[in-house]
Specification:
- The protein contains 13 helices and 21 strands.
- By secondary structure, it is α+β, with helices and mostly antiparallel strands.
- The protein has two domains: 164 residues, Creatinase/prolidase N-terminal domain (Creatine Amidinohydrolase, Chain A, domain 1); 264 residues, Creatine Amidinohydrolase, CATH 3.90.230.
- A six-stranded mixed sheet has the order 6-5-4-1-7-8, with helices on both faces. It has a three-stranded antiparallel sheet with strand order 9-12-13. The chain has a three-stranded antiparallel sheet with strand order 10-11-14, with helices on one face.
- Strand 2 and strand 3 form a beta hairpin.
- The mean pLDDT is 97.
- The chain binds manganese (II) ion (MN).
- Manganese (II) ion binds next to loops.
Length: 435
């Protein structure tokens, strides 16, 4: 499953059509980064660079100009380096395999940039990339200094982020197919974790089951650091230490998703270590589940993005009042944000090449309307701090989140992460069957 070269070309053409006349886009993918002496982290391309080129190697630059022509700047072929570090496509591969109209090696970056930018009006790049900002400013200054030799420097800098974000926000069929495969790999990984959990295991031993299924299924790595949080660790929203013993009677919250072809999936499930929810665990879990269903109803074309969150917050707050964790009028508790002691995050985010994918959530101050082809997560939760003495002791230290990945379609929301138990009786039956 692979995105075709023509698709990348079509994206570059669409990008140039949406920019002013006489623009050049400059992108870079980033460098290998050191973990410790002589050891590097595995390279992962920059998402927008990858979206527009499909080129996987580090240290590369892209110049996009004209109607979408690509000049790809790559590391050179180097038999000695490749002996140690592995294959490089080089300039020939950049043209034949990635559809670049032109390719050059990294040493030629400045001269390629000068010739692309000379006479260009708009220089378009990602403003949040400090290194690129320095580079493009240097190129502009160098061109301006050559004015008497006839060079014409760009006069406008333009941020690429909002433009490429809008493109990436609406997924094409090839992207959706990859994302559903990534989602289904993650479903299998979560099922494997539910099957294999036993009290007494270390959290990271359960994490090993996730990574095993990811890799065995063709996803080389997770889309983000796996969260395997037992007991009150689940109340730490981005708990990645995963180094404590799973106790009998704990709930376990796993937030983990495979990355496939650079596309993320993102699933959270919360289940009992011993296979049976306690009464307070089940009561709180049901509130989160009700919030999930209430939010899901709002994931339709033309509905404001924030409607899902608002529906989830209302259901959660109502549930907290019913169970006696909050007291008072539901409207007031929502307005005064009293629910935030138990629910301090949003009910989702865009999903794509980045797990927290790009794309604005508001347009001119108003929550944007959902459109076909958008992919987002829905992830209500409740977290009762173990130190919260304002609630009955039986609730303390319980953390719950339920998260799925959803494609917005005209005929209604489509759950890409379908097939993973989330109703209480379904989880208990699934876990019992594996014991
Ligand atoms: Mn998420």
């Amino acid at each position: 499953m692979k995105i075709e070269t023509q698709t990348y070309q079509a994206r570059r053409e669409r990008l140039m059509q949406s920019l002013p006349e006489n623009s050049v886009v400059v992108l870079r993918t980033g460098e290998l980064s050191t973990r410790n002496n002589d050891c590097e982290y595995e390279f992962r391309p920059h998402s927008s660079f990858f979206y527009l080129t499909g080129f996987p190697e580090p240290s590369a630059y892209a110049l996009i100009h004209g109607q979408g022509e690509l000049t790809l700047i790559t590391l050179p072929k180097d038999p000695e380096k490749e002996q140690w570090e592995g294959f490089r496509f080089g300039t020939e591969g950049a043209v034949t395999r990635f559809g670049a109209q032109k390719a050059a090696v990294l040493d030629e970056l400045d001269s390629e940039a000068f010739s692309a930018l000379d006479g260009t009006t708009h220089l378009v790049y990602l403003f949040n990339d400090a290194m690129l900002r320095e580079k493009v400013a240097g190129w502009r200054d160098a061109l301006a200094a050559r004015a008497r030799m006839g060079a014409v420097a760009p006069t406008r800098f333009m941020d690429l982020a909002p433009i490429v974000s809008e493109m990436r926000l609406r997924k094409d069929p090839e992207e959706i197919a990859i994302m559903e495969t990534a989602a289904q790999i993650s479903v299998e990984a979560h099922k494997q974790a539910m099957r294999s959990v036993r009290p007494g295991m270390m959290e990271y031993q359960l994490e090993a089951e996730l990574n095993y299924v990811f890799m065995k299924s063709g996803a080389r790595q997770p889309a983000y650091n796996n969260i395997v949080a037992s007991g009150s660790n689940a109340c730490v929203l981005h708990y990645i230490q995963n180094n404590e013993v799973i106790a009998d009677g704990d709930l376990i919250l796993i937030d983990a998703g495979a990355e496939l072809g650079c596309y993320a999936s993102d699933i959270t499930r919360t289940f009992p270590a011993n296979g049976r929810f306690s009464e307070p665990q089940a009561a709180l879990y049901q509130v989160v589940l009700d919030a999930y269903h209430a939010g899901m109803k709002e994931l339709t074309v033309g509905t404001p993005y924030e409607a899902c969150h608002n529906a989830a917050v209302r259901t959660l707050t109502q549930g907290l009042v019913t169970l006696g964790l909050l007291h008072g009028d539901v409207d007031f508790l929502i307005e005064s944000k009293a629910y935030r002691d138990f629910y301090m995050h949003n009910t989702g985010h865009w999903l794509g090449l980045d797990v927290h994918d790009c794309g604005s959530y508001k347009i001119a101050g108003e929550s944007r309307l959902l459109e076909e082809g958008m992919v987002l997560t829905i992830e209500p939760g409740l977290y009762v701090s173990k130190d919260n003495t304002k609630v009955d002791a039986k609730w303390r230290g319980i953390g719950i989140r339920i998260e799925d990945d959803v494609l917005i379609r005209a005929e209604g929301p489509y759950v890409l992460t379908h097939g993973l138990p989330k109703e209480i009786q379904d989880i208990e039956a699934f876990m019992l069957a594996s014991r």
